[in-house]
Write a structure and sequence with these properties.
Porin; about 45% strand; mainly beta; 4 helices; about 5% helix; four-stranded mixed β-sheet
């Protein structure tokens, strides 16, 4: 014990005897560390960025899905040129993953918010290139009632992507999945009522121009090729001079929500012929009017709701169906074929012949409806129906008359304001579909699900019902209504909402 005591006292004396130079070499106590703090101002998942008043949430999600019966394209679906034949790609897969960042801070005029979502979005029918998988569907700023950037159209109401996995193959105008450029201002009027005005990216189907000979001007290949090629977004339009102008009035209440909305869309066709020397129709404005209602139904089961939307348009048909730009062929080669022309307006004739027309707008309307039912708190199912119709008028000089001439089903020698359809030529068409999606929410952040969709195209008609080029693919088919089944399975995991 005496030995231990001598060692302790000796050590203490040695420490006291350390000189100033040696003391400077001893460890110094570290300064206080700035730890990340929870920010509770904006909900779960936000943290203060150290040294600032800005709150940040990093989130994201990953998803894998596969579909059968999609005809190799998640956008045009059954309306490609190879439905139900030996070259049809019925199997389609997609893998998606996004990282999201949400940054917010207080200002004297309200919260300033920046949001971005970037990631991978595959679309594989057996030949996808990995280099084409990068995707970004959100990049916007919000402040003092303004929303600017890649967000969601303020015409949107019906939540198509929340009801069906393959919602894009059914008629609906939802822009939420891919995002839409907007610059908008929203005023909160109190009592759950708001009003928004918005300048947005224009939604273009196609404008169809007919030469004096009745062919389609500006389209590749034989006359009529422009009419029936899916994916002609913006064909026949002049340069972008005006955004689409949107206005809505919305209410959100405990019973549900409702919205009325209107859009104005500029139609600025190119020329009557191949060059500027041929002149062009004057600009005009297409428009669309919509109304949507959602009614919560907790008296049936917690979480249940019914939602519907009705749209009517003249000259702005892409508000009825986004993202497909128009409708092309639906073919079972060597057997039957159905078709429908999707366009915002049609014009034709020439100034020299005195039969030039203005841009004759297409009339279209749709009705959408869905019910979401919770069988249990974790199992829920949607039941969806949709109907869309487009029409082109009647009589000499109508859009239908010009289309029929281009299809080889018009009175020879007529064009523009004199274009006359032969009996039995009618380019009016419609589409309806029903679907159901069953989903199991394994946890609040992970789900698996499956769905089925049935669609039927009510085809436009030509005299005699026999179709040859340019509609039919290298042969003669018989016009008939076309239908298709689709089946999809999905697994989805959120990091944070």
């Amino acid at each position: 014990m005496q030995t231990v005591r001598r060692l302790l006292f000796g050590s203490a004396a040695a420490v006291v005897a350390v000189g100033p130079g040696q003391a400077a070499d001893l460890p110094v106590k570290a300064g206080p560390v700035q730890y990340v703090k929870i920010c509770s101002l904006y909900g779960a998942g936000f943290y203060y960025m150290p040294g600032t008043d800005m709150c940040l949430k990093i989130g994201g999600w990953v998803r894998a899905e596969a579909t059968w019966g999609i005809n190799g394209n998640s956008i045009s679906g059954i309306f490609g040129a190879d439905l139900n034949n030996r070259v049809t790609n019925n199997i389609w897969t997609r893998e998606r993953g996004y990282i999201t960042a949400d940054a917010r801070e207080q200002t004297a005029y309200g919260v300033a918010r920046g949001y971005i979502a970037v990631g991978i979005n595959s679309s594989d029918s057996g030949n996808e290139a990995p280099s084409g998988q990068f995707s970004s569907n959100r990049a916007y700023v919000q402040w003092a009632g303004f929303t600017a950037g890649l967000a969601v159209s303020f015409f949107d109401f019906y939540p198509a992507a929340a009801l069906l996995y393959r919602a894009g193959n059914m008629p609906q105008g939802d822009t939420g999945d891919g995002g839409w450029w907007v610059w908008a201002y929203t005023a909160q009027l109190g009592g759950g009522v708001s009003a928004t005005i918005s300048a947005e990216e224009r939604r273009t189907s196609q404008i169809i121009a007919m030469s004096a000979a009745g062919g389609a001007v500006g389209g590749p290949g034989a006359p009529g090729a422009l009419l029936f090629s899916p994916g002609n977004a913006g064909a026949g339009y002049g340069g972008w001079q005006n955004p689409d102008y949107i206005g809505n009035l919305r209410t959100d209440q405990t019973w549900g929500s409702a919205q009325v909305m209107v859009a104005a869309h500029q139609l600025n066709p190119t020329y009557y012929g191949a060059t500027a020397l041929t002149g062009h129709p004057g600009d005009q404005w297409g428009w669309v009017l919509g109304e949507g209602v959602r009614v919560n139904a907790p008296f049936v089961a917690p979480g249940d709701y019914f939602v519907t939307q009705v749209n009517y348009t003249q000259g702005a048909t892409k508000y009825l169906w986004n993202p497909p730009s128009n409708v092309g062929e639906s073919v079972a080669l060597g057997a039957t074929e159905g078709f429908g022309v999707g366009a915002d307006c049609v014009y034709g004739g020439t100034l020299g012949a005195g039969n030039a027309t203005g841009c004759l707008t297409t009339t279209g309307w749709e009705v959408l409806g869905a019910y979401e039912h919770y069988w249990t708190p974790q199992w829920h199912e949607s039941f969806v129906g949709a109907y869309l119709a487009e029409s082109y008028g009647t009589g000499a000089g109508s859009a239908n008359g010009m289309l029929c001439v281009a299809e080889g089903a018009g009175v020879p020698g007529t064009a523009g304001s004199t274009a006359t359809a032969l009996p039995g030529c009618n380019n009016n068409w419609s589409l309806w579909g029903v679907g159901s999606r069953l989903q199991w929410d394994v946890t609040k952040d992970f789900y698996v699900g499956a769905e089925v969709i049935y669609e039927q195209l009510i085809s436009a008609q030509l005299p005699g019902g026999a179709v040859t080029a340019p509609l039919a693919l290298g042969g003669t088919t018989t016009l008939a209504n076309e239908s298709n089944w689709q089946f999809t399975v999905r697994m989805h995991k959120d990091f944070l909402p």
